[in-house]
Amino acid sequence: MTRKQKKRLYRILAASAGILLVELLPVDGLLRLALYLCVYFVIGSDVLSKAIRGIVNGSVFDENFLMAVATVGAFVLAIITRSGDYLEGVAVMLFYQIGELFQSCAVGKSRKNISALMDIRPDYANIEKDGHLEQVDPEEVAVGTCIVVQPGEKIPLDGIVLEGKASLNTSALTGESLPVDVKEGDTVISGCINLSGLLKIQTTKGFSESTAAKILDLVENASSRKSRTEDFIARFARVYTPFVCCSALLLALIPPVIQLLLTGNGNWMVWFYRGLSFLVVSCPCALVISIPLTFFAGIGGASREGILVKGSNYLEALAKARCVVFDKTGTLTQGVFEVSGIHHNGLSEEEILYYTAHAECASSHPISKSLQKAYGKEIDRSCVSEIREISGQGILARVDGRTVAVGNDKLMRQQNLEFIPCHEPGTVIHVAVDGIYQGHIVISDQVKPNAESAIAQLKKVGIRRIVMLTGDSARVAEQTARSIGIEEVHSQLLPGDKVDEVEKLLEQTAGKGNLVFVGDGINDAPVLTRADIGIAMGAMGSDAAIEAADVVLMDDNPEQVARAIRIARKCIGIVKQNIVFSLAVKFGCLGLVAVGIANMWAAIFADVGVMVLAVLNAIRALKIRKN
Ligand code: ADP
Ligand code: MG
């Protein structure tokens, strides 16, 4: 409990004791009123002062105002009618405070739960100095520094392992519970916990650019991107509260005036009381509190599964997903290509690989990385110049002073180079040196082991249309799609064509639901932005993709797309339940109060009760079933 909550608890206890005391003591008349007023100020002083401040600032119609008017009114009524029933006003305030206390505890607890899940913020980094370790603030560590991570410690900054072997727990980042083994030369990301060996890591990024800081930033800012439902609630409250205040006033005035005209005698007190009770019921707290809380819990629950959602608006949009479009390389396939054949004309295999790997030395495309690996030797960047990467086609560069073109059919045609088509299955990378065709390298990629199940699960959650887009050749595209159960494929697309294709699909699905694009961000950042929801692969994807995307999958697992949709639907379901439930009870109570069946006691019980239930329901969004 925080200090503020404790203070509220003490006031609740003191007021309860005060009420008991006054009820038990044989006091009457003015003394009784004075004692009750004391208790009232103990329990309600903050509400009163907030209500007064609200009036002064011009934002009159909030819940503090409603509670203040209702309870002060109850006192006035008891004094005028000489009933001595001061308990009602005090009790209403007491219950209101109990409800507030409960709500702030529940909200605080779920926020804490979410932050605990996100406990990836590194506290320090170890730097070796004169034979012993020194702890420094991770923000002060320069890029390229060697840091030491001992077993049990969190990796503070992204980097490359220089020395040592260890198992890492990545669950806070990816939701994956199996440890990952790393060794010399592997890249590691901040936020993972070192479970076993000592690691020496050379940092590749500063603190604010590191994964942990980026994720925290993302989740913390997620709540500022409001969903339409949340906006609706805020607008609703602005209209609703003045509306009920006027209704309460009319309820207190019109019926007695009519009575007065008809019978010559208006029952002012009864209608005044009903007007006050009306105010008590009308507080829209359950809605105002539970809905942002539900979204917050949904985002927190998803992040525990390794799905980062950048705002509640995306959760809302995901729940209405109807069409899912996948990129191929790196999204459905692993993006790790094996060379399955080299067919050469003039140069030797060795020479073809030499020119290719050198031309590719600056690209971050999975193909480029795989070709560099296939070459297997040190790449001397000093003999490469004038590198030009043409997205969706390949690379042009000058290696050892000779012009080299490495890429697909499109690139060859565009450069007016003759080429020999290949009949072997796989992606064909042609190579030309100084304008003369030298042969091609056939590479093949493997489908991710969970790609097929990812498609099956999407079909299970009712996604009608699943499409694959790729820049690769039709043959490879068809074969990949068929093996995992996708029926609609568009191939040989340049990045711009992908945007056009997605725009066509957007037109076709418009009004029926949302379009999700899932990509790894290499050559598809524009599509990620254009789709209703862009989902990027976080672990392998480029930084640009993670920036452009609305949802980031930390473990690159395409099955997470279906899970994200399920989480979003559950969250929106809870929001709808809360809206319907609290409005139904609210209007029911207002009706009962207006006709005089329910009194102020029943009203406050209903109000606090609905709020408690709505908050408990909201917290359900944090819990996510596996599958
Ligand atoms: P995908 O849509 O499958 O992710 P891309 O749009 O990234 O594929 O690339 C499409 C095609 O362009 C590749 O299959 C390859 O033939 C060619 N290509 C792209 N980048 C390169 C590169 N760096 N080197 C060689 N070929 C490339
Ligand atoms: Mg790609």
Poorly predicted runs: none
Instruction: Give the DSSP E fraction (strand runs of 2 or more residues).
Output: 15-25%
What Rg is obtained from the alpha carbons, in whole angstroms? Answer: 33 Å
Distance between the termini: 35 Å
Which features characterize this protein?
627 residues, binds magnesium ion, seven-stranded mixed sheet, single chain, binds adenosine-5'-diphosphate, 17% strand, six-stranded antiparallel sheet, alpha+beta, Rossmann fold, Calcium-transporting ATPase, cytoplasmic transduction domain A
Question: Please, could you describe this protein's structure?
Answer:
This protein is 52% helix and 17% strand. It folds into four domains: 238 residues, no CATH class; 79 residues, Calcium-transporting ATPase, cytoplasmic transduction domain A (Distorted Sandwich); 133 residues, 3-Layer(aba) Sandwich (Rossmann fold); 112 residues, Calcium-transporting ATPase, cytoplasmic domain N, CATH 3.40.1110. Strand 1 and strand 2 form a beta hairpin. The two termini are 35 Å apart. The protein is of the alpha+beta class. Bound molecules: adenosine-5'-diphosphate and magnesium ion. Magnesium ion binds next to loops.
Task: Furnish the topology, listing elements before pairings.
Blueprint: H1 3-24, H2 29-57, H3 63-80, H4 87-117, E1 125-129, E2 132-136, E3 146-149, E4 159-163, E5 166-169, H5 171-174, E6 180-182, E7 187-188, E8 193-194, E9 199-203, H6 211-222, H7 228-263, H8 268-282, H9 285-304, E10 307-309, H10 312-319, E11 321-327, E12 338-344, H11 349-359, H12 366-375, E13 384-390, E14 394-399, E15 402-407, H13 409-414, E16 427-433, E17 436-444, H14 451-460, E18 465-469, H15 474-484, E19 488-490, H16 495-509, E20 514-519, H17 525-530, E21 533-537, H18 543-548, E22 551-553, H19 560-594, H20 600-619
Helix pairs in contact: 1-2, 1-4, 2-3, 2-4, 3-4, 3-8, 4-9, 4-20, 7-8, 7-9, 8-19, 8-20, 9-19, 9-20, 10-19, 11-12, 14-19, 19-20
This protein binds adenosine-5'-diphosphate and magnesium ion.
